[in-house]
Amino acid sequence: MQQRSLKLSALTVAVLSSFSTLVYAQDATEKTEATLPTIQVKANADASAEGLSAPYAGGQVARGARVGVLGQQDNMETPFTVTSYTQELIQNQQAASVGDVLLNDPAVRVARGFGNYQQLYMVRGLPIYSDDMSYNGLYGLLPRQYLSTEIIERVEVLRGANAFLNGAAPGGSGLGGAINVVPKRADNEPITQVTAGVQSGGQGYVAADLGRRVADDRVGIRVNVARRDGDTAVDGSSGELTIAGVGVDYRDGRVRVSADIGYQDHRLKASQPSFYVATTDVPKAPDASSAIAQPWTYSNEKDSFGTVRGEYDFTSNITGWAAFGVREGRESSSFANPTLLNGNGDTSAYVLDTVREDSIQTGEIGLRGNFKTGSVSHKVSLSAMGYKALSKNAYGFSDFSGFAGNIYSPTHVDKPSTTFFPGGRMTNPLVTERLETSSVALADAMSFFNDKLLITVGGRYQYIDDTTYNYDTGVAAPGTAKSAVTPVGGIVYRITPAMSVYANYIEGLVKGDIVSASSGANNIGEALDPYKTKQVEAGFKFDAGRIGGAVGVYQTRRPVGGVGDDNRYDIVGHQRYRGLELSAYGEIVPSVKVLGGVSLLDTDLNGKEGIGAPKSQANLGLEWAVRQIKGLSLDGRVIYTSSQYADAANTQKIPSWTRIDLGARYVMPMGEQVLTLRARVENVADKDYWASSGGYPGQGYLTLGAPRTYIVSASVDF
């Protein structure tokens, strides 16, 4: 462990030294600035000369996104499937969280973590934990359970395996995709915006967004603060959120530096629980607005996080970058998630109290160069990443015999004692896990025939060192230091400027299982090698100028651990995921925007479908600018999800569901200011439905869809 710590420290020093170099390089920059091209300042979150991809027609998505170590890539020129949702879409839909934004994606559905309120995103039938999202390319920096949108410029979704592009997600998810959050930056024009709103139940909302460029536009400052407080559309439930973010960027010739500081305090009281299932007769979903949760259940999460990133042009075709980030988080909670016993809705529940503290350090350094060999253009990227996490945990269970209830006739009980089965110190938890990862990646993106044929090859060496400790004594269990190499191959052929075909081979990577005593195997305590998920994908993309989209097919094979005939725990099979995806975005006509698509998925493990993996999902969103009434826009969205299973044996099934959302926006001048009024109704039909049936691998549990919710707000731009 000492050796690994020294390696991370060396990476940290390298990152910080790189920033020192950037700062002291300014004098040299002034001497050579005249020979360098002028860089136009624009909203840009990663201190990159490439900047953010421009919004596509309609402004709801961007033309491209960050594709891991490869940097910013245009949708038509990347061999992967990416969608970047813009701040314009986020604000116009009044999306409160990352999960709300991802409801627009036909390949994504929002679920929950195992036994808690954590947002979890199912992409191509596989989970991405919210703490496995990246923040401007770095893992582990965002709040672990929920992220509010006020500090977000873009939410970028990459569908499919991505270990080469981003490194292995430290939480052990991300086999079906990756999510990157891009923070806000000061734009060319000053921003002074104040927003106030309210939603069903009376929860109030206020926010301020300020942005300025100073020092001849070389320095940008963006400040966002927001507060939510009050009851929700669910009886007896309330929420409270405070978030603040400050982003600063600096540009001068060869040098570009950016930094972010964020703070979020999120508190939930009596939110709808998750439901475990102990019957094949799954009951119908109850009234989504009813007070099923016990009034003493809660979840509190407080996080402080920050990053700094810099880029320096050594020459006109060689650029180096470095980044470093930290997060400190603390959580406490009390859960009582019911187990469904029969089709009548009878339940049994016990209490789980938890506390958790996280301390994260993460960093990245890299070089990118452009050159030619004959008629072939090369863009070579070399990157090294390091990650270190210390986690402290403690818990307490009540008597497992539990207390009775019913989802159709909820009753409330006094909170049982949670001293029946304790683990660790609730007031001062010990370190229970130390996770350190490091990786090195090398890629060559080659262009042939005047950029008509694009080929990308590369590989990443990944090291994972995970040690767990006894909750009560702090004694370490055997470590799981393992490594693996994950390759990549991608190809794009531009048939015409408006049409391209693509294909890729890429792998996903998560740490291998530690064989537990409960398995009954003869290799208890052995740490298996990291599990590799292998994916092939091919498709067609089009860009007609005002409307674009894609159609693609893929197959993913994920290893599954178990006890074999030799009584040894090892990889015993593979779960197969085959899918077809269609997407469309842009403007059908100048006054009508479209955003949507279809995702078809077939999963198979020994003839059974995967948990929480619907066969079909579809989204269709339309927005109409009413020409007869200047400033008025109307929008609607339909979300469909087919039936899905909650158990590996496929005996517990929840039905399909369809949700309709409607919205309106009116923009009007108000003297020298601009007033924007927004109104939205989500789940217009007030339909009660089970929204998801899984998330955490191998575990089935149900989450209840939100009831009909009204949201109104007013924004003033000064």
From TrEMBL:
Any idea which UniProt keywords this protein has?
A: Cell outer membrane, Ion transport, Iron, Iron transport, Membrane, Receptor, Signal, TonB box, Transmembrane, Transmembrane beta strand, Transport
Name of this protein? TonB-dependent transporter
KW Transcription regulation (keyword) present: no
The Gene Ontology terms for molecular function here are: siderophore uptake transmembrane transporter activity; signaling receptor activity
Domain spans labelled TonB-dependent receptor plug: 75-172
Task: Describe the family membership recorded for this protein in Swiss-Prot or TrEMBL.
Answer: Belongs to the TonB-dependent receptor family.
Supply the Pfam families for this chain.
Answer: Plug, TonB_dep_Rec_b-barrel
InterPro entries tied to this protein: Beta-barrel_TonB (IPR000531), Beta-barrel_TonB_sf (IPR036942), Plug_dom (IPR012910), Plug_dom_sf (IPR037066), TonB-dep_rcpt-like (IPR039426), TonB_rcpt_CS (IPR010917), TonB_sidphr_rcpt (IPR010105)
What sequence ranges are listed for the domain TonB-dependent receptor-like beta-barrel? 261-684
Q: Where is this motif: TonB C-terminal box?
A: 701-718
**Domain of life of the source:** Bacteria
Q: Chief location of this protein?
A: membrane
Q: Where in the cell is it found?
A: Cell outer membrane
Metal-binding in keyword set: no
Q: Which organism is it from?
A: Sphingomonas sp. A1
PANTHER family in the cross-refs: FCUA PROTEIN (PTHR32552:SF82), FERRICHROME IRON RECEPTOR-RELATED (PTHR32552)
Membrane topology classification: Multi-pass membrane protein
Quick one: a GO biological-process term for this protein? siderophore transport
Q: Which GO terms describe its cellular component?
A: cell outer membrane
**What does UniProt list as this organism's lineage?**
Bacteria, Pseudomonadati, Pseudomonadota, Alphaproteobacteria, Sphingomonadales
